[in-house]
Amino acid sequence: MTTFGELFGREPDGRWAGPGRVNLIGEHIDYADGLCLPFAIAQRTVVEVAKRTDGRLRLRSRSEEGGFDGDLADVGPGRPEGWSGYVAGVLWALREAGYAVGGIDLLVTETVPLGSGLSSSAALECGAALAVDDLYGLGLGSSAEGRKQLVDACRRAENDVVGAQTGGMDQAASLLGTAGHALLLDTHDDSTRQVPFAPAEVGLTLLIIDTKVRHSHADNEYGARRASVEKAASALGRPSLRDATVADLAALDADLLPRARHVVTEIDRVRRTVALLDAGRIAEIGPLLDASHTSLAVDYEVSCPELDLACATARAAGALGARMTGGGFGGSAIALVPADGADSVAGAVRAAFAAAGHREPDIRATEPSAGAERIT
């Protein structure tokens, strides 16, 4: 295993971790002025980083090929390509925002499972952002408001440098997460609120079912969905679909109607889920998770056979509710299950995948965890 010292000829200044995230509900609406309810998870990406005295970036990873060796001044839209764009883009975005940042040496030593729908990209961005914040003394990581500025830099890295037209939900969850809570993110004004969500306290478990089907948010499908939502809002003469009703959508063309319907109904499902969690009624959110998956599969068409099978099988085996999580076209599903039935649900899903000829899924329990942090 190659060490930081072997790669760069010196020791790192520290180690930082950015967690992945699960979105409990509120999918594909963070770019539509919607409401999302993600939380940080224990799975995380770890980076070892050392500050440089020049503007050079040397970026390497133990889990992915390639990297980058060049000047920060050369970073910009589309440069560098591959995973290193997520890191280099963060420094570019901070510099664009007026912060005095320079070069770094960085090694990625651990990763959130890549392409699993648990936002490995945001985990990498946020771990790197917190490292740069610490090493260059920006002072943003010590407060919620400061971390929101890091969220914006990470989002800009993904949008403007990598070219993936995602919203800011993933980065907000990774940087602002709190143990025992989900993060209610209002993307209309970027306001946040911690919502109690601790399934274990009421005898429940949330399972993550990684289907092992890989995807990329930078592909044309994701951008096409976002374009449809923006076109639907424009056709209705609205800045966004945030406050539209299902009845308002009747004026839309048949190709835009289902995409818009998902956004409008998903925002309502988030509101109803938050109300139940605030009231301590976690077990009652299952039907909302189910309805969210149906909407994503039918109206938004971002599911896949493996995700549909995982959700249907989990429900049949006793889950209170199940849905795909993340951008879709593969990745992971979540299932809310009674703690004493978690093993049987997981076993049923594995058996169903085997019978269908799919790869064996990776299934694990998760709980809301703390956000990005320095670990040494």
Automatic annotation (TrEMBL):
Q: Where is the Galactokinase N-terminal domain?
A: 3-51
What enzyme class is recorded for this protein?
Answer: transferase
Q: Which SUPFAM superfamilies has this protein been placed in?
A: GHMP Kinase, C-terminal domain (SSF55060), Ribosomal protein S5 domain 2-like (SSF54211)
- Keyword Flavoprotein tagged: no
**GHMP kinase C-terminal domain location, by residue?**
275-354
Keywords from the named record: ATP-binding, Carbohydrate metabolism, Galactose metabolism, Kinase, Nucleotide-binding, Transferase
> Could you say which EC number(s) this protein's record lists?
2.7.1.6
The chain positions of domain GHMP kinase N-terminal read 86-177
Can you tell me which family this protein belongs to? Answer: Belongs to the GHMP kinase family. GalK subfamily.
Q: Which NCBIfam families match?
A: gal_kin
What is the protein named? Galactokinase
Native organism is: Pseudonocardia zijingensis
**What lineage, starting at the top, does this entry show?**
Bacteria, Bacillati, Actinomycetota, Actinomycetes, Pseudonocardiales
In the UniProt record, what gene is named as encoding this protein? galK
